[in-house]
Design a protein that fits this description.
Layout lengths: L16 H12 L6 H13 L3 H6 L9 H10 L4 H5 L1 E4 L2 E4 L12 H14 L6 E5 L5 H9 L4 E6 L2 H13 L6 E5 L10 E6 L12 H4 L15 H6 L3 H4 E10 L5 H10 L2 E7 L5 E8 L1
Parallel strand pairs: 3-4, 3-6, 4-5, 6-7
Antiparallel strand pairs: 1-2, 7-9, 8-9
Helix pairs in contact: 1-2, 2-4, 6-7
Length: 290
């Protein structure tokens, strides 16, 4: 089956867009958990249109020469988000690239928790938001998109990630409400915040990851010591001085880390609640002063 450009307008059959997507799907079955989606996204990217446009009327398009090259990159385990240059997160399109952690749908659990808290606390909450380890700004920008009166500070040790975060804030119309700056977790941060978000590295150094992740995404944003808890040990003791009275910190955790991180938080004087992701896995801990 072809993965080649079809000269001139091509009927939907041998050599057409749908046929190439089917072929690419078969090629990607051993590479990806979502081979059909990957094939469709890469076709849309090659054509310079949205995926739904391809799905609604595939016969409208000719197969671009670029498509075979994009499929080859994906077969080499390059993440889809790096190939197309973005990942959709919450309701936003977040630009990403090599050297930057790709946002995951599981992290949307933290945004959902913020919305639930806001319903409990009423209008005006949160006012000031801090995102530690902001990466390309995914969590901070998603939360600020839901609270138009709020402002936010995003901190990351990676200048490459911060460049993406600033560009994303500009593209999404939130540059005036955000500040992004270089920092090592909470070191040097003054002031207090109603809400602190944090998705730190939490993978143990010896854990095996899929090639898409291990060979492409930045190790510094993934691994955190033998038990994956090194960064929690640094972050949690700093949180009390950064939260206003009644403030909340929401930390993403690995699915097996609930008890370990809870113990660290309780030792720092926090009451802890846990939220599950859509797969029913423990994903976020909500820390308030006991």
């Amino acid at each position: 089956m072809p993965l080649d450009p079809t000269p001139g307008p091509s009927p939907e059959g041998e050599g057409g867009v749908s046929d190439n997507i089917r072929t690419a799907t078969n090629l990607l079955m051993g590479i990806s958990d979502t081979p059909r989606l990957d094939a469709e996204l890469l076709m849309a990217h090659a054509l310079g249109v949205e995926r739904q446009d391809v799905l609604l009327d595939p016969a409208r398009y000719d197969v671009p020469e670029l498509y075979a090259h994009l499929i080859a990159r994906r077969m080499a385990h390059e993440p889809i988000a790096y190939i197309v240059g973005y990942r959709d997160f919450w309701t936003l399109r977040i630009a990403v690239g090599p050297g930057v952690l790709i946002p995951r749908p599981d992290s949307e659990t933290l945004v959902e928790a913020c919305l639930d808290l806001a319903r409990e606390r009423g209008a005006g909450w949160p006012s000031r938001v801090l995102d530690l380890g902001t990466g390309p700004g995914s969590l901070l920008l998603a939360v600020l998109s839901e609270f138009p009166a709020a402002t936010g500070l995003g901190v990351d040790i990676s200048e490459q990630a911060l460049a993406y975060a600033r560009d994303n804030a500009e593209e999404l119309g939130m540059a005036s409400r955000t500040v992004f700056r270089s920092g090592d977790w909470a070191a040097g941060i003054d002031g207090r915040f109603d809400l602190i978000l944090c998705n730190p590295p939490y993978i143990g150094d010896d854990e095996q990851l899929m090639p898409d992740v291990a060979d492409h995404e930045p190790a510094g944003a993934l691994f955190a010591g033998p038990d994956g808890l090194d960064d929690y040990r640094r972050i949690i003791p700093e949180l009390p001085r950064l939260l206003v009275p009644g403030g909340v910190a929401i930390l993403e955790i690995g699915a097996t880390q609930h008890i370990s991180v809870r113990q660290l938080a309780e030792a720092a004087g926090f009451a802890v609640a846990c939220r599950q992701d859509l797969g029913g896995r423990d994903r976020a801990l909500l820390l308030t002063r006991a």
